[in-house]
Amino acid sequence: MSHRRVLSLWFPRMGAERLLRQARMTQELPFAVVQDRGQMQVISSLSQMAEERGLRLDQPLRDAMAMCPDLITRLQNPQSEARFLNSLRRWASKFSPWVAEEPPQSLVIDLTGCAHLFGGEEGVIEQVEQDCCDLGLSVHIGMADTKGAAWALARYAGQPLGVNRTGDAIDQEAPATRSRAVKRRNWERGGAAPQLRSNRGASGRIAQPGFTRQALAPLPVAALRLEGHVVTALNRLGLRRVEDLMGQPRAALARRFGKGTVYRMDQALGVAPEPISPAKQAPHFACRLSLPEPIGLAKDLLAALDKLLPRLAERLNEKGRGVRRLRLEAYRTDQTMQSLEVGLARPSADITRMRPLLAAKLGDIKAEFGIDVLRLVAAQTEPIHAHQHKGHLEAGQMVAARLLENTKLDDLIGTLGARIGLEAMTRLYPGDSHIPEKAAQVQAAAWSAPHLHWPVPSRLRPLVHFPPEALQAHSAATVPLSFKWRGQLHEVHSAQGPERIAPEWWLAERAWRSGTRDYWQVVTKTGDRFWLYFAHGGAISGGWFCQGRFA
Questions:
Q1: Following CA atoms 58, 331, 362, 313 in sequence, which dihedral angle do they give, to the nearest 10 degrees?
Q2: Coil vs helix vs strand at 275
Q3: d(CA 543, CA 513)
Q4: Where are the alpha helices (DSSP H) in 258-297?
Q5: What is the pLDDT of residues 137-168, one digit of tens each?
Q6: Using omega within 30 degrees of 0 as the cis cutoff, is the peptide bond preceding 249 cis?
Q7: Extended strands (E) in 258-367
Q8: Residue 379's closest CA among 335, 409, 340?
């Protein structure tokens, strides 16, 4: 049985090189892709020439323009970059059927049993590099027995070890103030050296089967896919390479830096499993309209929308799908794009339900120099089924009319959701519990159906509920003649009860640690009606509490 072999492909300049390919621009000009982050624009991707000028990722655009005045910039389009990565995944399937995406710039391929078709692992890397060179893409390649090791080799093999001089690391102290034993590497004591080879320069890295540990040892700890603050803390202690972590006690590492640090190391070494699951092709529904002349008026956008919606609805009806989230993408003549997205409370392929939501938000689109391409995408779809009614014709008509009437509430939810967000609207739903606090549950209005038949409680419940508040009362188990609540003295006129409610023994809830409760409906001499209960005591002491008021 052959060793499992994993190939990791990292495209560090994918965002910039995608636009350079699209615009057929030369690589000799400094080019950068920027994105809006807060109140400023920062660089998200750079060309090779821009990196040679000293620019870096996440650098503010104003600083980059000061360093490189002739810098050419374009706005980032995350949707287009995701589609481009999906296209690269389809290209990579020529090497193996097990290809998975690692957004935003990586692919991982399970190459087990496939390398011999291309002349071995070196042949696979040569073919990948040749294809990427023809596509105008920069690629870093890593191959190992595990996914984590391949990821690390693609990004860190052959790179100098960065040193963050914080002043508090052990190896940054003066040699005269400490005594440090010389550490000899395994291969200096007669062990096997790491079989780490590079093909065609520093872009291809291969760790031979069974030598994953030796290949990872000289890499920095960031190669284990650790979080930034964990890497910083490890560097401050002088643990800079993976080999430094391998020699540390696992329990101490997990206790100080979290179990994720040990788990990531186990994944890279092959101790913990990390499967590669190729993404299943989800049903895709979209239609596009290319305009002969740029447009910018609202009426022209509406006319284009009326041409796109029937085509999209027809494709949805063919597959029995309904739209949940709908996105309209407007591509401008300056190679930028603006999108707007709306949501529906109930999945539907009805044009009359989708058009008002999009028309209400068309004013948010800024045409700038003009829009020459419009694309309508069903971002999220769900299966829908036609309603079939059996029985008398009149009964069927009544049910159909009632269903048609119910869509008005869904349309209202969708219209309000386009303005304030679907997550901001909630509805109450009956809960399956005898505990008063759990009698009603809050659910999202857009993703839940209304409950028409609300269960009637066996006892009257107050209109206003609030967390239990302690009372000042002198009585023990019987209803007190008077009690003090919120600084005001109340005299009891009549009381009805008790209604005994026990806590759910299978749940250890903090609010019910006071034990079984006896609920009373109390009417005071001033006419106020309160919902009081006496807690018999359990893990904590009990007493009298007020939990609600009747209307």
A1: -120
A2: coil
A3: 12
A4: 259-269
A5: 999 999 999 999 999 999 998 776 655 555 55
A6: no
A7: 286-295, 321-332, 337-348
A8: 340
